[in-house]
Amino acid sequence: MRTFILILAAVAFMFVNRAHGQDFKSTLQKTFTAFDTTRDPQKQLDASNKLSLIAKKFNAEPMAHYYASLSKIILSYTDKLEAAKRDAYLDEADKEFEEMMAILGKPNDETYVLAAFIANARLGVDGASRWQKYGKISADNMEKAKEINPNNPRMYYLQGTSKRFTPKMFGGGKKAALPYFEKAEGLFAQEKGDDILKPSWGKSNNTYFLNECKTEDKD
Fold first, then answer.
1. Is residue 13 part of a domain?
2. Closest by alpha carbon to 45, among 77, 22, 20?
3. Which pTM was predicted?
4. Residues whose CB falls within 8 Å of the CB of residue 212, separated by 6 or more in sequence, listed in order
5. Half-sphere exposure of 173 toward its Cβ, with a 13 Å CA cutoff?
6. Which of 13, 33, 124, 188 is most deeply buried (CB count within 10 A of its CB)?
7. Is residue 51 part of a domain?
8. CA-based radius of gyration for the chain
Protein backbone atom coordinates (compact mmCIF):
# COMPACT_ATOMS: atom_id res chain seq x y z
CA MET A 1 0.00 0.00 0.00
CA ARG A 2 2.84 2.41 0.89
CA THR A 3 4.51 1.75 -2.46
CA PHE A 4 1.24 2.33 -4.30
CA ILE A 5 0.69 5.65 -2.54
CA LEU A 6 4.23 6.80 -3.39
CA ILE A 7 3.74 5.88 -7.05
CA LEU A 8 0.38 7.65 -7.10
CA ALA A 9 1.95 10.77 -5.55
CA ALA A 10 4.77 10.74 -8.10
CA VAL A 11 2.33 10.46 -11.01
CA ALA A 12 0.22 13.29 -9.61
CA PHE A 13 3.34 15.44 -9.19
CA MET A 14 4.41 14.85 -12.79
CA PHE A 15 0.91 15.61 -14.04
CA VAL A 16 0.77 18.91 -12.14
CA ASN A 17 4.26 19.91 -13.36
CA ARG A 18 3.37 19.08 -16.95
CA ALA A 19 0.12 21.03 -16.76
CA HIS A 20 2.00 23.95 -15.19
CA GLY A 21 4.55 23.90 -18.01
CA GLN A 22 1.93 23.75 -20.74
CA ASP A 23 -0.08 26.57 -19.16
CA PHE A 24 3.05 28.71 -18.85
CA LYS A 25 4.21 28.16 -22.42
CA SER A 26 0.82 28.71 -24.01
CA THR A 27 0.18 31.85 -21.98
CA LEU A 28 3.64 33.25 -22.73
CA GLN A 29 3.33 32.42 -26.43
CA LYS A 30 -0.09 34.01 -26.78
CA THR A 31 0.87 37.17 -24.91
CA PHE A 32 4.20 37.76 -26.62
CA THR A 33 2.65 37.13 -30.04
CA ALA A 34 0.02 39.77 -29.22
CA PHE A 35 2.78 42.17 -28.22
CA ASP A 36 4.98 41.41 -31.22
CA THR A 37 2.30 41.59 -33.91
CA THR A 38 0.41 44.76 -33.01
CA ARG A 39 1.33 48.28 -34.04
CA ASP A 40 -1.25 49.83 -31.74
CA PRO A 41 0.71 51.54 -28.90
CA GLN A 42 -1.99 50.90 -26.29
CA LYS A 43 -2.38 47.23 -27.19
CA GLN A 44 1.38 46.83 -27.14
CA LEU A 45 1.56 48.43 -23.69
CA ASP A 46 -1.26 46.20 -22.44
CA ALA A 47 0.54 43.09 -23.72
CA SER A 48 3.80 44.22 -22.13
CA ASN A 49 2.03 44.67 -18.80
CA LYS A 50 0.61 41.16 -19.14
CA LEU A 51 4.12 39.84 -19.75
CA SER A 52 5.19 41.48 -16.49
CA LEU A 53 2.32 39.78 -14.70
CA ILE A 54 3.31 36.44 -16.22
CA ALA A 55 6.84 36.98 -14.91
CA LYS A 56 5.41 37.52 -11.43
CA LYS A 57 3.11 34.50 -11.60
CA PHE A 58 5.79 32.19 -13.02
CA ASN A 59 8.61 33.81 -11.10
CA ALA A 60 10.91 30.79 -11.30
CA GLU A 61 10.74 30.66 -15.12
CA PRO A 62 13.71 32.58 -16.60
CA MET A 63 12.07 33.05 -19.99
CA ALA A 64 9.11 34.80 -18.40
CA HIS A 65 11.52 37.49 -17.23
CA TYR A 66 13.31 37.41 -20.58
CA TYR A 67 10.19 38.39 -22.53
CA ALA A 68 9.08 40.92 -19.93
CA SER A 69 12.50 42.57 -20.24
CA LEU A 70 12.41 42.44 -24.04
CA SER A 71 8.98 44.08 -24.17
CA LYS A 72 10.16 46.97 -21.97
CA ILE A 73 13.18 47.53 -24.21
CA ILE A 74 10.97 47.73 -27.28
CA LEU A 75 8.53 50.06 -25.51
CA SER A 76 11.41 52.42 -24.76
CA TYR A 77 11.69 53.08 -28.49
CA THR A 78 8.10 54.35 -28.68
CA ASP A 79 7.91 57.64 -30.57
CA LYS A 80 7.40 60.92 -28.69
CA LEU A 81 8.24 59.53 -25.26
CA GLU A 82 10.24 61.78 -22.97
CA ALA A 83 13.75 60.61 -22.08
CA ALA A 84 12.80 60.01 -18.45
CA LYS A 85 9.95 57.69 -19.47
CA ARG A 86 12.19 55.79 -21.86
CA ASP A 87 14.76 55.30 -19.11
CA ALA A 88 11.99 54.19 -16.74
CA TYR A 89 11.06 51.40 -19.16
CA LEU A 90 14.72 50.41 -19.35
CA ASP A 91 14.97 50.37 -15.57
CA GLU A 92 12.14 47.79 -15.65
CA ALA A 93 13.97 45.89 -18.39
CA ASP A 94 17.12 45.81 -16.25
CA LYS A 95 15.17 44.51 -13.28
CA GLU A 96 13.60 41.68 -15.28
CA PHE A 97 17.00 40.90 -16.79
CA GLU A 98 18.55 40.60 -13.34
CA GLU A 99 15.71 38.32 -12.21
CA MET A 100 16.32 36.10 -15.21
CA MET A 101 20.07 35.90 -14.60
CA ALA A 102 19.55 35.09 -10.93
CA ILE A 103 17.57 32.02 -12.01
CA LEU A 104 19.82 30.99 -14.89
CA GLY A 105 23.05 31.54 -13.02
CA LYS A 106 25.02 31.46 -16.26
CA PRO A 107 24.78 33.69 -19.35
CA ASN A 108 24.22 32.40 -22.86
CA ASP A 109 24.22 34.00 -26.30
CA GLU A 110 20.60 35.15 -25.99
CA THR A 111 21.18 36.81 -22.61
CA TYR A 112 24.24 38.60 -23.97
CA VAL A 113 22.22 39.81 -26.96
CA LEU A 114 19.47 41.04 -24.66
CA ALA A 115 22.04 42.89 -22.54
CA ALA A 116 23.39 44.51 -25.70
CA PHE A 117 19.83 45.49 -26.69
CA ILE A 118 19.32 47.23 -23.34
CA ALA A 119 22.60 49.10 -23.81
CA ASN A 120 21.59 50.12 -27.34
CA ALA A 121 18.29 51.43 -26.00
CA ARG A 122 20.05 53.44 -23.27
CA LEU A 123 22.28 54.86 -25.97
CA GLY A 124 19.24 55.71 -28.07
CA VAL A 125 17.81 57.88 -25.32
CA ASP A 126 20.80 60.24 -25.37
CA GLY A 127 23.48 59.18 -27.80
CA ALA A 128 25.52 62.37 -27.51
CA SER A 129 26.36 61.87 -23.84
CA ARG A 130 26.07 58.10 -23.54
CA TRP A 131 27.85 56.66 -26.57
CA GLN A 132 31.15 56.14 -24.77
CA LYS A 133 29.65 54.10 -21.91
CA TYR A 134 26.82 52.20 -23.54
CA GLY A 135 28.51 51.77 -26.91
CA LYS A 136 31.22 49.75 -25.19
CA ILE A 137 28.73 47.76 -23.10
CA SER A 138 26.81 46.83 -26.23
CA ALA A 139 29.93 45.89 -28.20
CA ASP A 140 31.33 43.79 -25.35
CA ASN A 141 28.08 41.83 -24.98
CA MET A 142 27.84 41.28 -28.72
CA GLU A 143 31.37 39.90 -28.77
CA LYS A 144 30.56 37.49 -25.92
CA ALA A 145 27.39 36.37 -27.71
CA LYS A 146 29.36 35.75 -30.89
CA GLU A 147 31.91 33.62 -29.04
CA ILE A 148 29.12 31.33 -27.84
CA ASN A 149 27.01 31.29 -31.00
CA PRO A 150 28.19 33.11 -34.13
CA ASN A 151 24.95 32.10 -35.85
CA ASN A 152 22.56 34.02 -33.62
CA PRO A 153 20.57 36.19 -36.07
CA ARG A 154 19.44 38.70 -33.43
CA MET A 155 23.05 39.70 -32.94
CA TYR A 156 23.41 40.78 -36.58
CA TYR A 157 19.93 42.33 -36.63
CA LEU A 158 20.81 44.60 -33.70
CA GLN A 159 24.16 45.48 -35.22
CA GLY A 160 22.35 46.35 -38.43
CA THR A 161 19.87 48.64 -36.72
CA SER A 162 22.72 50.33 -34.88
CA LYS A 163 24.52 50.98 -38.16
CA ARG A 164 21.30 52.04 -39.87
CA PHE A 165 20.68 54.87 -37.43
CA THR A 166 24.30 55.96 -37.05
CA PRO A 167 25.06 59.04 -39.21
CA LYS A 168 26.97 58.29 -42.42
CA MET A 169 29.81 60.56 -41.32
CA PHE A 170 30.41 58.15 -38.43
CA GLY A 171 30.29 54.99 -40.54
CA GLY A 172 26.55 54.35 -40.50
CA GLY A 173 23.67 54.55 -42.97
CA LYS A 174 21.85 52.08 -45.19
CA LYS A 175 24.86 50.85 -47.16
CA ALA A 176 26.82 50.10 -43.99
CA ALA A 177 23.85 48.35 -42.35
CA LEU A 178 22.82 46.17 -45.31
CA PRO A 179 25.41 43.36 -44.84
CA TYR A 180 24.27 42.84 -41.24
CA PHE A 181 20.61 42.54 -42.23
CA GLU A 182 21.55 40.17 -45.06
CA LYS A 183 23.54 38.00 -42.66
CA ALA A 184 20.67 37.98 -40.17
CA GLU A 185 18.11 37.11 -42.86
CA GLY A 186 19.89 33.90 -43.78
CA LEU A 187 20.22 32.87 -40.15
CA PHE A 188 16.60 33.73 -39.32
CA ALA A 189 15.56 31.38 -42.13
CA GLN A 190 17.21 28.51 -40.26
CA GLU A 191 15.13 29.05 -37.10
CA LYS A 192 11.94 27.06 -36.67
CA GLY A 193 10.33 29.60 -34.36
CA ASP A 194 7.99 26.97 -32.93
CA ASP A 195 9.10 27.11 -29.29
CA ILE A 196 8.60 30.27 -27.24
CA LEU A 197 11.39 29.11 -24.91
CA LYS A 198 13.84 29.43 -27.82
CA PRO A 199 13.86 33.13 -28.85
CA SER A 200 13.14 33.83 -32.52
CA TRP A 201 12.06 37.48 -32.41
CA GLY A 202 13.37 40.08 -34.83
CA LYS A 203 12.75 38.34 -38.17
CA SER A 204 9.96 40.58 -39.50
CA ASN A 205 11.73 43.80 -38.50
CA ASN A 206 14.96 42.55 -40.01
CA THR A 207 13.18 41.90 -43.32
CA TYR A 208 11.72 45.42 -43.23
CA PHE A 209 15.12 47.04 -42.69
CA LEU A 210 16.75 44.74 -45.24
CA ASN A 211 14.36 45.93 -47.95
CA GLU A 212 14.68 49.54 -46.82
CA CYS A 213 18.46 49.42 -46.99
CA LYS A 214 18.32 48.23 -50.58
CA THR A 215 16.79 51.57 -51.58
CA GLU A 216 18.77 54.72 -52.26
CA ASP A 217 20.48 56.13 -49.19
CA LYS A 218 19.47 59.79 -48.89
CA ASP A 219 20.49 60.17 -45.24
1. yes
2. 77
3. 0.88
4. 174
5. 11
6. 188
7. yes
8. 20
Cβ neighbour number for residue 189 with a 10 Å cutoff = 9
Does a structural domain hold residue 96?
Answer: yes
Total domains, the chain? 1
Contact in structure between 111 and 101 (CB atoms under 8 Å): yes
Spatial separation of the C-alpha atoms in residues 154 and 107, rounded to whole Å: 16
pLDDT tens digit sequence for 120-168: 999 999 989 999 999 999 999 999 999 999 999 999 999 999 999 999 9
17-46 pLDDT per residue, tens: 444 456 999 999 999 999 999 999 999 999
Q: Alpha helices, DSSP H only, in 105-202?
A: 109-125, 127-148, 153-164, 174-188
d(CA 94, CA 13) in angstroms, rounded, equals 34
What is the rounded distance in angstroms from the CA atom of residue 106 to the CA atom of residue 95? 17
d(CA 39, CA 46) in angstroms, rounded, equals 12
